[in-house]
Amino acid sequence: MTRNIPASRRDLVRGLAAGGLAAGTLASATPAAAQTPPAQTPPVQAPPAAQPAAAGAPVLSNPRDRFPKPPFPAQSQPWPALQSRMNPVPDCGETSYRGSGRLAGRRALITGGDSGIGRAAAIAYAREGADVAINYLPAEQPDAEDVARHIREAGRKAVLIPGDLRDEAFCARLVEEARAQLGGLDILVSNAAYQHAQQKLADITTEQLDQTMKTNVYAMFWLTRAALPHLPPGAAIIVTSSVNADRPSQFILDYACTKAANEAFVKGLAKQVIEQGIRVNGVAPGPFWTPLQVGGGQTEDGLRSFGSTTPMGRPGQPAELASTYVELAAASSSYITGQIYGQTGGVGWP
Ligand code: NAD
Ligand code: MG
Description:
Helix content: 25-40%
Number of domains: 1
Keywords: Oxidoreductase, Signal
Pfam family, one: adh_short_C2
Largest sheet: 7 strands, parallel
Mean pLDDT: 86
CATH topology: Rossmann fold
Region (Disordered): 29-85
CATH class: Alpha Beta
Strand order of the largest sheet: 3-2-1-4-5-6-7
Order of helices and strands: HEHEHEHEHEHEHHE
GO molecular function, one term: oxidoreductase activity, acting on CH-OH group of donors
Family: Belongs to the short-chain dehydrogenases/reductases (SDR) family.
Bound molecules: nicotinamide-adenine-dinucleotide, magnesium ion
CATH architecture: 3-Layer(aba) Sandwich
Number of helices: 8
Radius of gyration: 19 Å
């Protein structure tokens, strides 16, 4: 079905999808309290399960077929979107991630840990033996409580610290509170971000620019600056960047600039703080099925085809990134620093 939308808007949406990009919010920010019920669309069918393997053979499945593919059902939510209201609900490893003690006794703070990629990292970290504090916006409390349940079911401590990262004083308090409640801190995952697509540079208001920069860049500086004096040798800092850092979409210029800043920060800071025995790395996802995609009026057409232009033929699910976040935090990766791990579904970057 083709929706009756202006050509320019269709082009915008098609351009985002064609770039293999995290299509951003297309409508103005709206308080979560104003959220409307999700569209009445049937739940997406689960992809085919892997065939039972012959005795002794590994269970394998084609990665193209492992997770839902476009077309996706129509849906949209005001920003910040809730993951629990998405269809299909993103897979963050809730039923699949198995730990093996790789982060035993570690203490992690993850921003944007309520949903999407941060949630997948939080669940994996707990199952690997870490206690985990997550930060999120107050409107995302239901998603955050669900993550806390998974962390506790893994037998680890969950600390929920809602608050707005655009506030410098809050960033300092967040680190302090996480340290106090976890009894220390040795993993910092700077993952929260704001993204809002605009067709023309002139459409990016100073207010939007400020929100994108503060959330994606300033908070990363403020959190890291507050955490560094307390991080022990062996600690890890991980920043979530994007394919947009290197291959910017013309529709999310402010966001792409912040993602390039994330990567410059990772590469430069890594050289500085290895003196302290601290490693710094980045993860650069391509299109992943998360609330970022539905948080503010993404068109039906844009969501329907999301991820279709990657060689995988589908978007990634956050569960597919979890092991990368574990790897970059684990002591076994002691020679890995200043790196950006691309996970783009085969578009050939970085
Ligand atoms: P997401 O919506 O699940 O996570 C983003 C989180 O940012 C939100 O849950 C929210 O808690 C947090 N946030 C936003 N503004 C905030 C503020 N002012 N204060 C506190 N928290 C705030 O979406 P996601 O896709 O999992 O995003 C996680 C990271 O992945 C982001 O850095 C994003 O840029 C990056 N990324 C995502 C994609 C994709 O296709 N989904 C692609 C490339 C990069
Ligand atoms: Mg969220």
